What does this fold into?
Amino acid sequence: MRTVVLLGKNIYLVLRIATFHVQAQKMNLTQKIEKLKREKKAVILAHNYQRPEIQDIADYVGDSIEISRKAKQENDAETIVFCAVDFMAESAAILNPKKKVLLPTLGARCPMAQMLTVDEIKRQKAKYPDVPVVLYVNTLAAAKAKCDVCCTSANAVEVIQSLNADKVLFGPDRNLAEYVQEKTGKTLIPIPEYGFCPTHLLFQLEDVKVLKLEHPEAVVIVHPECSGEMRKSADFIGSTSKMCRYVKESTAKKFIVGTEEGLLHRLRKENPKKQFFVAYGGAVCPNMKLTTLDRLYMSLRDEKHLVKVPEKTAMKARNALDRMFEIKC
Ligand code: 13P
Ligand code: SF4
It folds into this structure.
């Protein structure tokens, strides 16, 4: 018996030391990043889906329109480290071409953004010559350069409403297209026919139903990239930051969240007395999670990976992004 107790104590001690060691390493890395940030006059912008430790070290955390706006308005910093995925960093480089924009991990690519090719846009434009093209910011720069105006999930409804057209070519997210069509009554032609987010596709109504049985009073909030049946089950639909605002203003105490689990860190931090349940625990965006403290540190240290968009493409894409910023919402 004594041997078992002794063994248990030793295992506990080893685990405590290991945890302490990991925490100390993390602290060191955090301090090193802070130091480099000051030396290189850098600012760290992070998307709401980033790992908790990345959100905690960032100067600003937000949804795609907020971090794009921050990048566009950044005056003081020389370098913007963009902790997010490719298309978001590209937008920052387009909007503020005088700054060095770094993406800590080259592989952090949004698969949805890859789903819409320039050829497909050209094909659809030829088929519908007088129909305006609105592209979700989750597209690559070359695609943005071929559209009339961009939108994010935070302003898609207002962008479509602002157009003097009843029919619009819209891509690449079909779920967002359907949501905006429901909201505006206009006809949105999805390009490609079925573009989607592999992470949001994982949310299923069944999971919400199970959670609702356990927590019937919980309020359901979902991202418009979710399926129609998920959206129908929701009390609120909005971009990641709009969800944060909704939760802050709500008197409810429990929330079932239909978006990437990274948002729960911010939700919990801002609302310590409220409870959050991700509608499906497996809904993780692997690309967003590629950015770690180590990679962020190396990115600052070696000034990698510099995001550059050829000026001809950047100029056209900038017009589409700027047009979006002009629309009030
Ligand atoms: P938000 O603009 O709502 O943050 O969404 C970005 C995104 O990639 C959703 O999957
Ligand atoms: Fe792209 Fe989906 Fe990841 Fe957002 S959550 S970055 S849409 S793959």
Notes: Residues 71 and 77 are 10 Å apart (CA to CA).
